[in-house]
Design brief:
The chain is an all-alpha fold. The protein has 4 helices and no strands. The protein is 75% helix and 0% strand.
């Protein structure tokens, strides 16, 4: 699955899509990864992160200190 995700994301980027469209396109792959987690608590946390809106994601990225 990961082998298909990276080329798909690159294709989308090369098509001039916005960062939000790339984020939305990758959401399916993130959700797929969550289904592979055995622990219920960790899986729920994964789903919460994977289903967050782009605006919420972007806000969280701006709050992180840059190294």
């Amino acid at each position: 699955m990961q082998k298909l995700t990276i080329p798909a994301l690159l294709f989308i980027l090369l098509q001039g899509c916005t960062a939000q469209r790339v984020y939305d396109a990758a959401q399916g792959a993130r959700l797929d990864q969550c289904t592979k987690i055995a622990d219920n608590t960790e899986r729920a946390r994964c789903y919460d992160t994977a289903t967050q809106s782009y605006d919420r994601y972007e806000q969280g990225q701006q709050e992180k200190p840059k190294n």
